[in-house]
Automatic annotation (TrEMBL):
Protein EC: 2.6.1.52
Protein name: Phosphoserine aminotransferase
Extent of the signal sequence: none
HAMAP family: SerC_aminotrans_5
Subunit organization: Homodimer.
InterPro entries, per the entry: Aminotrans_V_dom, Pser_aminoTfrase, PyrdxlP-dep_Trfase, PyrdxlP-dep_Trfase_major, PyrdxlP-dep_Trfase_small
């Protein structure tokens, strides 16, 4: 069997232990004689899986009782519409645009109401997080929206914006469970799970109860109403059952590792190794503003498109997968999510040093 070091931004590396456990249970989940994929979502066995997954997530993030946890489908992108459809009571929302994903979310929301772009870092190719301490928040804004970790550009909000009392909605797809967060600071935290948690398609929405109402925009489909799924405990229709099962296993893995404080320390150690090298390298250069650097996604360039292409090709041959940068920015990007071991980053840095020697 071959396992590569997979630096993909998503779908991304999962813990080997989780994959091994799932493989062992593939044909017979705990004596049921069937795979979780073949199981009724109304069965006792699946009820156990989803209930335990929710509880483990609650434990990990310390989610207060007045927040619901929803396991939904449609990936993170479906939330770009679902959020305004459910929350835009005044038909107004403020968006902080720090990358393509926030931009897409803002464009989608603009179909449903007035969208104010209250801050942006597009002037410098989204390479930094703008100052969000005193923003022109609209009095009528139903919420303030951020993409907390910008997967493509490798930036992260180190401090949440001052929303002046307005509800904060955050896309945490690419930093989900990478460090502790204070859930009470948000109205909605959501993310596609395919980076730090599980199979693509499943999306987790953590939402404060008072935001779940029947008062949604006219024409909002039943499937896109948070209330539908909150009332049915994420079992209104057939949920992404196998995805939820893997998420549950990753939650257990995280708990066994010691929880999110431990993950944060591990992630900081990995990121420090890579950023440390980038800062001293004479060939490679990190592209994100230092103060805003993500622990999860590390974009870098050589300054020469030819050398970038050579690096991507040679790194692949050496067993490092998916180091090519996003198609919109080029260069390279190493995504070092929770499941990437320190040794993977060490091996990458060793390879980069060798490449630098050979190509300077
Ligand atoms: N938001 C962020 C921050 C992402 O990185 C991505 C995908 O990479 C998305 C949203 C879109 O996710 P999905 O493909 O699940 O719709």
């Amino acid at each position: 069997m071959k396992r590569v070091y997979n630096f993909s931004a998503g779908p991304a590396v999962l813990p080997v232990e989780v994959l091994e456990e799932a493989a062992a249970e593939m044909l017979d989940y705990q004596g049921t004689g069937m795979s979780v994929m073949e199981m009724s979502h109304r069965s006792k066995a699946f009820e156990g899986i989803i209930t335990e997954a929710e509880q483990d997530l609650r434990d990990l993030l310390n989610i207060p009782d007045n927040y619901k946890v929803l396991f939904l489908q449609g990936g993170a992108s479906q939330q770009f519409a679902e959020i305004p459809m459910n929350l835009m009571k005044n038909k107004t929302a403020d968006y902080i645009v720090t990358g393509q994903w926030a931009k897409k979310a803002a464009q989608e929301a603009a179909k449903y109401g007035r969208v104010n772009k209250i801050a942006s870092s597009e002037d410098k190719t989204f390479s930094y997080i703008p100052d969000c301490s005193d923003l022109p928040i609209d009095e009528d804004a139903d919420y303030v929206y951020i993409c907390e970790n910008n997967t493509i550009y490798g930036t992260k909000f180190k401090e949440l914006p001052n929303t002046k009392g307005k509800t904060l909605v955050a896309d945490v797809s690419s930093c989900f469970l990478s460090e502790p967060v204070d859930v009470t600071k948000y109205g909605v935290i959501y993310g596609g799970v395919q980076k730090n948690i599980g199979p693509a398609g499943t999306v987790i929405v953590i939402i404060r109860e008072d935001l779940i109402t029947e008062d949604v925009l006219p024409g909002t489909p039943t499937m896109l109403q948070y209330k539908t799924h909150a009332d049915a405990k994420s079992l209104y229709n057939t949920p992404p059952a196998y995805g939820i099962y893997i998420c549950g296993k990753v939650f257990k893995w995280l708990k066994n590792m010691g929880g999110l404080e431990v993950m944060k320390a591990r992630n900081e150690k990995k990121a420090a190794l890579l950023y440390g090298f980038l800062d001293e390298s004479r060939l490679f250069k990190g592209t994100a503003a230092k103060k805003d650097r993500s622990l999860m996604n590390v974009p870098f360039v050589t300054g020469s498109e030819e050398l970038d292409a050579k690096f991507v090709k040679e790194s692949k041959e050496a067993g490092f997968e998916n180091l090519k940068g996003h198609r919109s920015v080029g260069g390279m990007r190493a995504s070092i999510y929770n499941a990437m071991p320190y040794e993977g980053v060490e091996a990458l840095v060793t390879f980069m040093k060798k490449f630098e020697k050979e190509n300077l």
